[in-house]
Amino acid sequence: MTCPYCQAENAESVLVCASCSRDIAVPATLIAERDDLLRKRDQLRDELARARDEVEAIMLRRKSR
Q: What are the distances in angstroms from CA 65 to CA 5, 36, 54, 59?
């Protein structure tokens, strides 16, 4: 894990940076929230892509009339 303060490399499981002694632990609840938000973001991206495809198909049908 890279320290966000001094950019030193630390083991993944450390709570405090070995170089600058700052707290670098990320609570499990924040990790779970992040994962949930990433899942929702991906779902929204998929939905947006489907909507764009539908709009494009509608526009093509209108042009071919």
A: 61, 44, 17, 10
Digit-by-digit pLDDT tens for the chain (65 residues) are 888 899 999 998 899 999 999 999 888 788 899 999 999 999 999 999 999 999 999 999 999 87
CB-facing half-sphere around the CA of 21: CA atoms within 13 A: 0
Give the whole-angstrom CA distance, residue 19 versus residue 42: 36
Cα–Cα distance for residue pair 60/58, rounded to 1 Å: 5
pTM of the entire structure? 0.60
H/E run at residue 4: none
The answer to whether 3 and 12 have CB atoms below 8 angstroms apart is no
Residue type, 31: I
